[in-house]
Amino acid sequence: MEPKFYVSSSPHITDNESIPKIMYGVMLSLIPATAGAIYFFGIRAGWIILLSIVSAMATEGILQKLMKKSVTIKDGSAMVTGILLAFNLPAEVPWWIPVIGSVFAIGIGKIPFGGLGYNPMNPALLGRAFLLASWPTHLTIFKTIPRGGTISGIDVITNATPLNVFKIAKASILAEQVQDYDVAIRQLYDSYSNLFVGRVGGCLGETSALLLLIGALYLIYKRYISLKVPVSYILTVALLSWIFGGTEGFFSGDPLFHVLAGGLILGAFFMATDMVTSPVTAKGRIIFGIGCGVITVIIRLVGGYPEGVSYSILLMNLTVPLINRYTRPKVFGEVKRS
Amino acid sequence: MWFKSKSFKGGVHPPENKAFSDNKVIEKLPLPERVVIPLAQHIGAPAEPIVSVGDEVKTGQKIGQSKGFVSVPCHASISGIVKKIEPRPHPVGGDVLAIEIEGDGNDIMSQDFDFNPDYMVQSVDEMKENILEAGIAGMGGATFPTHVKLSPPPDKTIDTLILNGAECEPFLTSDARLMIEFPKEIIEGLRILMKILNCKRGYIAIEKNKPNAISLFHKLINDSKQSDINVVGLKVKYPQGAEKQLIKAIVNRNVPAGGLPMDVGCLVQNVGTAKAVYDAISKKLPLIERVVTVTGKGIKEPKNVLARIGTPFQQVIDFCGGLTDDAAKIINGGPMMGIAQFDLEVPVIKGTSGIVILNTKQAILPQPQPCISCARCVDSCPMGLMPNYLATLVENQKFEQAKEFNIKDCIECGSCSYVCPSKIRHVHLFKFGKMHVAKMMKPAA
After folding, report:
1. CATH numbers and ranges of domains, chain B
2. How near does any CA of chain B get to the CA of A270, in Å?
3. B3 burial via Cβ count (<10 Å: 0-12, 13-18, 19+)
4. Is A202 left (phi over 0), alpha (psi -120 to 50) or beta?
5. Cβ pairs A/B, distance under 8 A
6. pLDDT tens-digit readout, B208-260
7. What number is the ipTM of this complex?
8. Among A87, A145, B79, B420, which is least packed by CB within 10 angstroms?
9. Residues with Cβ within 8 Å of residue B368, at least 6 apart in sequence
C-alpha cells in the first residue's frame, strides 16, 4: 500500500521542552556549586560526587534491566539524584557511603514506586536520611576545614558546622554554663560573608549560598522552578527563627544567620522544588514552602538535630497529594457552590 | 483604548508560523470539476437531501434541508449533476452522508444574487430567516448554526457582540486576510448582527500580531464615526480566540462553567461568519465558498484560497503546487485543535479555516513519558483545570472522578499537551474521557 499520512489527536505541535532537557538544565545549574565544593573541600569532593552519580545511574540501569523495563538513565534524573545526594554528605565520608546512599535512593526511593514521576519522596533526601540513621557518625563529622578558612574561634568543637556550633552554644547559654559561648554566637552572627561565600564547614554542596543562587537564577530564568516554594520556605524560616531563635527571648534571633547557615538554600531552591515531589498548584506551593519552613525551624531549635532541612522536605513531600487535592485551582467561571 | 493589551489567565505561546501565508492575497480557486457536500457541516442535526441522483442543480441551489432548529441547510456550490448520495469521509471524522455533484463547468447560478442596497431595512425575522436559508454556521471552526446563536431565549439580553478576529491558531491566516481584504463587509456584517440582537456595543477583537488589520479597522471605524464599535488589540497568546477567554479579555466577564456567552450578555461570532452574514443579507447569497489557508512546511506554495465548499483537499493542494516530498500530516484547521486527515478526498467544509500540512519531522510526535508533575499544564490551562490529574484519571478509567475534576469544562485547546515535557497526549485522553462522562450522565437524565 502507498504510504499515507500520520494521524493523531490534536494538538499536532509541541514545544521543545522534554524531561532530559529539564534534568540537564538542573545539572547545569548545579555546576557552580559543584565547582565550589571541589574548591572548598578539595578534589575528594569531586570523587564523592562522581561516585554518587555513577552508583545512582548504575542502580537505575541494573534494576530496570532486571525488571525488563526500558532503561531511562539517559534522561538525567538519576544523575541529578546522585549529585544532590553527594551535596548532602560531608567531605570525609568513606567511599562506600555515597554508593550505599545512591543505591538506597534509587533502589528503594524511586524504582519500586515506578521510576521517575511516581516517587512520593525526593530520592536524594531519602538516601541521605537512610545514611544519617544508619551511620550517624560518618554523616555528622566535618573535619575538613574549607579552603579560605572557617569561622574563627569555634575550633573548640569538632563537628564544626555553624548550626552545630549554634545549637551547642545556645544550649550552654540557656543552661547558664560557660560564658565563652556568648562569644561564639556573636562570632557566628558576624560571619555573614563566610556563610554567603561558603567558607564554613558543612556538607559538600550546601555551604555556598552564592554559588547555589547563581544556579537557582538559571532555573528561574528557564522556568524550571517556581519561586513560590523557595520564597515561602525561606521567609518562613527567617520569620520563625527571628521570633524564636534568639538567646534573649522572643524576637532576638538572627534571621539572616538561619537562612544562610546549613542546607536551607540548597534545600529550598533545589530539593523542595523537585517537580515530582512538590505540589502542582500555585497555592499548594506556598503551603508546601511554609510547611517546610515550620518543620525546619522546629527541628533546628527544639529537635535533636542541628539541621532540619532534609527531614522537613521529606515530611512535606508526603503531604503533596493532600495539598494538591485541597488547593485545586478555580475553574474558569466556576459558580460558588451554595 | 485599542492599544491596550488585553488577555486572560493561562495559555501558551506556540511559534506563530504565520509568515508562510500572511502576505498572500486571497486567490480564487479554479472551479472544481466535482464537489462532495456533506449534509452535516455544522453542530446539530444533519440536513436532509432534497435532490436525487441524476438531478440537475445550479450554483447556490439548496440541496439539503435543515432538520430541526439546531441545523442548517446546505447548497450546491457548483452547477452540474448529482452523481451520488452516500456516506463519504468527513474532515471532522467518520463517514457522513454527502451529495456528490459533477460540475458542468459553467457555474450557472440558481438566481441572480444581486446586491440590494436597502438590505438594512429588512425586519429582524426576515434577516434571521435569510441567515438560516444561507446555511451559515460558525466559520471559525466550531460550525455552530449562526441563526441559533442569534435567537437567545427571551430572558437573556445580549448587550455585547464580539467579532472574533483573534485567529490565535498558529499557521492560519484566513481570517487575517479576510479582515484586510473585506473590512467593510465585516463591519456591515457586525451591524446586521447588532441589529438582529438589538445590541448596543460591538467589538472587533484582533490579536496584536495583525497590526495591519487593527489599524485598518480602527481607521474605517473612526472615519465613519461608528462610536458603538470598538477595535480591540489582544495580547498574542493561545487560545486567545476561545470564546470564554475572549469575553474575559474584552469585557472582563466570566462565562459561568457549563454556561454560554449569552449568560453574561455576550455573543461571539467569527469575522468570516460576519462576512457570510453580510452576503446572505445583502445578496441573499448562500454560504458556498470560504477562505482557506493552505500552509505549512509540507506544501510547495502556501496560499490563501477562496474555495467552493465541497472542493476535495487534493484539488486545493494541487492548486498550491502540491505536497512536498516529506509532507506527512494533513490537518483540517490549525495545528492546535485541527483534525488530522488520512485521505485527501475529504472536502473543504464550512468550518475549514485552513489546511495545514506538516513535514515528517513535525508529524512524528514523541512517545509519552511518565508525568513528572512539573505543573506546566496546570499553569497553562486557560480553564483552570488540572490536566495532569485528569489525564491520570482517564487513563485509569476513573470517569466519575474525572467528572468531579471538571473534565467537561475542558475546551480541548491543547495548551496542556503543547507544554508537556513528558509529551503526554492530554487532549486525546480528554476527548475519550468526555465521551464516557457524557454516556455516564445520559441514563440519569
Report:
1. 119-283 (3.40.50.11540), 376-444 (no CATH)
2. 14
3. exposed
4. left
5. 162
6. 999 999 999 999 999 988 889 999 999 999 999 999 999 999 999 999 988 99
7. 0.89
8. A145
9. B422, B423, B424, B425
